[in-house]
Amino acid sequence: MTDSRYPEHLVKAFQGFLNAGIDVYLIGPRARELALEQRIMDHHSFDLTVDAPFSTIETVMFEVFHVGAEPVDEERPRIITFKIPMDQQEDITFNIGPFRNYLPPLKSLQNHNLRGIILDLATREITIQAFGYDIEGNLIDPFNGVADLKGHQIRPVLPVEALFRESGGWLLKMGRYISRYGFEPAPDAFNEAARNAMGVLDVPRDVWRKEMDKLLGDHHPMMGLNYLAQSRVLAYIIPEMYSMYTFSLESPEDQYKNVWEHTLQVIEKCPSDIVLRWVAMLHDVGKVWTKQEGRDGRIHFIRHEDISAMLFDGIWRRFQIPEQTARKIQFIIKNHSRINLYRRDWTDTAIRRLIREMGPYLDDLVEFSKCDLTSRREKRVQMIRSLLTELQIRIKDLREDDAQKSPLPKGIGTYIIEQFNLEPGPAIGRIRARLAELVQNDVLERGADPEVYLDYLKKHPDLLMDSEDK
Q: How large is the average pLDDT for residues 28-46?
């Protein structure tokens, strides 16, 4: 008997494997939706785990649906994907993998004799991923994952009493899963993580980066970072940021906005671009060291951008972030307040200077400025949003205008030849290039009359000398 909650194509896949004598179970998002009594009849993607190798999986799916597996990029994939064409409907996707049969080599697991579907589910790492359903809709839930799902808790499948002590990487995995699902850590898991937080120092630094990238790139990074801070794992991997966390706890919020909460809000407002989220996480970390009270009685953080960028210099090396990516993050951190200086009375020359000095990072800086806006004063928010939109339009217009027009007037080379009695040739091109550079640096006006540039050359005859003559 099949479960009436299953759509026809899922039933066909189940029956295909069962007819071949192969155990098969529904896992993943659809299993979690069933556990929460949600409808899966109209879904177009299903995850299955089966007691068979890839070659047999492909044979069964071809016999049932007459399709082959989609190409895979990995040398050793965990799953293979099949797309089933549907008439005038979205394709049905099946992600299918063989039973997993491995567990981490933890001492605490030496006496556990897990096998079959139970062993497969045990490899799913957290309980809310470690249950499934058979064709009749019977629940296989050896680790009480449904209870944790309904309780919105993240709990490792493996016993937490030994897990964090034996595997420091799990201290970071917890943060990643909290960020993915937006659930709180189970109390016993949190307590063990906090008790063994120093174990993260034994984890390779490239694992630190990979786990932090996953945490920052997911749906609920605020919750993941709060877990890292509250468990003190953050104190061991980014003490600079942990200082910001404790600084916000100790400082009176009525004097200035809570730096930690502001940082978390900015991260979640950013698009899931890993560079911008690293920027968001660390852009204000320098405020801990730059806080001072001004003559007006207000709190100021003068040049916190520079200190934040300087602190990141050590952080990116610690996390082994690729240098090109790190330099981009650092540049945006150092200049993140630059865009906020924009006002409507800026001239085109000033905006061109901004375009030139911010180079390839300008668009990211403008995008980050939008994320960095967390004020509760709606009028201020609307004003700044309006300014940023206006700035984006002006940048776009000037870029398009400059792409179409030369910074120098047409025929300037001929004017130079005639005015200074020079011979045509490459030297004239180099003089034009020097004048264009002066325009870019705002020394000379863009698109002025030829006389402006000729007069400048008269006053600076060294510019007429070819580089080979100097």
A: 95
